[in-house]
Design a protein that fits this description.
Shape: elongated
Number of domains: 2
Structural class: mainly alpha
CATH class of the largest domain: Mainly Alpha
Number of strands: 0
CATH architecture of the largest domain: Alpha Horseshoe
CATH topology of the largest domain: Leucine-rich Repeat Variant
Number of helices: 16
Distance between the termini: 30 Å
C-alpha cells in the first residue's frame, strides 16, 4: 500500500489525539504543583519532574496534562525552562528504546512540538531515527518549527550541526512524505550548507528513479521552490540544472507511460506539478531564447491523441538529441545529450 501525505498525517493524528485508548495513571501531583511555582534547583527537583513525566508517558492525556502544567498562570518561567530541559532528556531516552509503544512515543514527539522550544532539538533529531515513519515525520515537523530560532542564535555551530543531522537523515529516509518534511526543515534561506544538502537530495532522488522507483511525490517541488529564491553560485547552479534535466527526462517518460493506464494513485497530478515547477525554474535560471525553449506545460495541456509525441518534442528542446542539441547541452550547463 502506498503511504501518501494524507495517510501519514492521519496516522500521526490518530496516535497523538488519543485514538488509542490506554489505562490512566494516577499519582500525587503535590510535589510538582509546588515545584512549578518556584525556580527548580538541583537533582531533587529534576527527579520530581522526571518522575512526573515517567508516570504520564503512557497516558492518553499526556499532552494535555503537560500543557496544563506548563501554561498555568502560576507556573514560573524558570520551571518552564527546566521542564523543557527534562522533557528533552526524557524523550531522547524513550526514543532510543524500541520497546516503547508507538502511540505513546508519537504523543511524546507531539508534546515536544507543543512546547515549541529550541531546547528540544536533540530529542526531535532523535525522532528522525525512529523506525516508525509517523514519528520521523513529526520529528522533522518539530525541527522545522524551531529552525529559524536556531539560525538566529549566537552560535553558528548549532545550525551547522542541525543541517548536518538533517542531511544524514535525508540520505537514509525511505518515505517521500517524511523526506519532504526533512527538506522543508533544511530550507534555511541564504545558507550554503542548506543549498548543498538540498541539491544532493535531488541527485539522490534521481538515482532512485533511475533504479525504478515509480511513485512521484512532492519532495522535489519543495526543493525547487527553495532554489528559486536562493542565491546559487556557478557550481551550485550547474549541479542543480543537471539534476533538473535528468528529473525532467524521467518524469516525462513516466508521464507518457501513464497515459496507457499506468499512473499510480495521484501520480499524474504530482507529475504535472513537478514538471511545471522544474521547467519554470529552468526558464528562470537558464533564460533560453524564446524560439529554442521547450514548453512542456503547454504540451501536457494539449491534444491527448498526440500527447506523447508533442511532450517528447518539447523535452528534446531542453535536453537535446543526437541530431539536434538542446538548450541545456551547451556551456555552462553541459548536460549530456538526452540527460541520461
Amino acid at each position: 500500500m502506498r503511504i501518501t501525505n494524507r495517510t501519514l498525517r492521519l496516522a500521526a493524528w490518530m496516535l497523538t489525539s488519543g485514538a488509542v485508548a490506554l489505562a490512566q495513571v494516577g499519582g500525587d501531583d503535590a510535589a510538582l504543583d509546588e515545584l512549578r511555582k518556584r525556580t527548580p534547583a538541583g537533582d531533587n527537583d529534576n527527579a520530581i519532574i522526571d518522575k512526573w513525566l515517567a508516570d504520564r508517558f503512557a497516558v492518553e492525556s499526556f499532552r494535555t496534562d503537560l500543557t496544563a502544567v506548563r501554561e498555568d498562570a502560576s507556573t514560573t518561567p524558570a520551571f518552564q525552562t527546566a521542564l523543557a530541559d527534562r522533557l528533552n532528556t526524557f524523550a531522547k531516552n524513550r526514543l532510543a528504546d524500541p520497546n516503547n509503544a508507538v502511540d505513546a512515543v508519537t504523543r511524546l514527539v507531539q508534546a515536544l512540538i507543543d512546547i515549541d522550544d529550541v531546547k528540544t532539538r536533540e530529542s526531535l533529531l532523535a525522532a528522525l531515527g525512529h523506525p516508525h515513519q509517523a514519528v520521523r515525520y513529526l520529528g522533522a515537523k518539530g525541527l522545522h518549527a524551531v529552525r529559524d530560532r536556531i539560525a538566529a542564535g549566537t552560535n553558528p555551530n548549532e545550525l551547522r550541526d542541525l543541517l548536518a543531522a538533517l542531511r544524514t537523515a535525508a540520505a537514509a529516509e525511505t518515505n517521500n512524505t517524511v523526506l519532504d518534511r526533512i527538506c522543508r526543515a533544511m530550507s534555511v534561506p541564504n545558507n550554503d550548507d542548506a543549498r548543498t544538502a538540498l541539491i544532493d537530495v535531488l541527485l539522490s532522488q534521481n538515482e532512485r528513479y533511475r533504479r525504478g522507483a515509480i511513485l512521484a511525490d512532492r519532495t522535489e517541488i519543495a526543493v525547487f521552490e527553495y532554489l528559486a529564491t536562493a542565491n546559487l553560485d556557478a557550481a551550485e547552479l550547474t549541479r542543480a540544472v543537471q539534476a533538473a534535466a535528468v528529473l525532467l527526462r524521467l518524469d516525462v517518460a513516466r508521464y507518457i507511460a501513464g497515459q496507457n493506464g499506468r499512473f499510480v494513485a495521484d501520480e499524474q497530478a504530482v507529475l504535472q506539478q513537478r514538471i511545471a515547477t522544474v521547467e519554470g525554474w529552468l526558464e528562470q535560471v537558464v533564460r533560453p531564447p524564446a524560439d529554442r525553449s521547450g514548453n512542456l506545460r503547454q504540451a501536457i495541456a494539449g491534444e491527448q491523441a498526440t500527447l506523447a509525441e508533442t511532450v517528447q518534442f518539447e523535452l528534446n528542446k531542453w535536453i537535446g538529441t543526437a541530431d539536434s542539441p538542446g538548450v541545456l547541452n551547451a556551456a555552462p550547463w553541459n548536460v549530456p545529450v538526452a540527460a541520461p
